[in-house]
Amino acid sequence: VNNLWSPRSTLFAGSQTWNAKVHFGYRNAADAQSPEGSIPNSRFIDWNFSGIIAIRPLAKHEVLIDYQKFEGNAGIPGGANLPSLARATYLDFDRELLSVEYQIEHPLPSLKNISAKYYRQDIFRNVEILPNAPPKLTNSKQVTPLLINPSAKHLTNGATLQSSWNFAGRHELIVGYDLW
Questions:
Q1: Most buried of the four, 25, 37, 110, 168, by CB within 10 Å?
Q2: pTM greater than the 0.70 cutoff
Q3: Which residues contact 108 (CB under 8 A, 6 or more apart)?
Q4: How far apart are the first and last CA of the chain?
Q5: Is 98 in contact with 133 (CB distance < 8 Å)?
């Protein structure tokens, strides 16, 4: 439909005291096709990378370090929110996440596991809107919008603490706390 090309690769490695996973993906798609023809400005290109490593410093203890990156650009095909001649494009969108987590399994007979995690996530969006609208006269002034360029950057730092409790072998209670 849109000539999507999407290669990806994942590598796993490990031993008894550590394991790791690394992944890379890429996508490239042309404008989508419909029975009426090409849908303008519907193409996209993006890529992603992620890696996680888990280390077991002691029996039943594990440290996890996770990194994720996603970046790309994409057309926005339009719709009721934009004039029919307008062209909107995500010039850049980006998400980056880094987290560190410490887990302990079965520290007590009824406590199945407990974990603490810190994370930092950064999201960025940069949009370009070309209204391509005809000039308008307002109070004897001609107004011609040429370019609208909204962007946003969101940074989140957070932490979680979670425990799983097992009662009578069949009942589980998960208790946690999130802070961001």
A1: 25
A2: yes
A3: none
A4: 41
A5: no
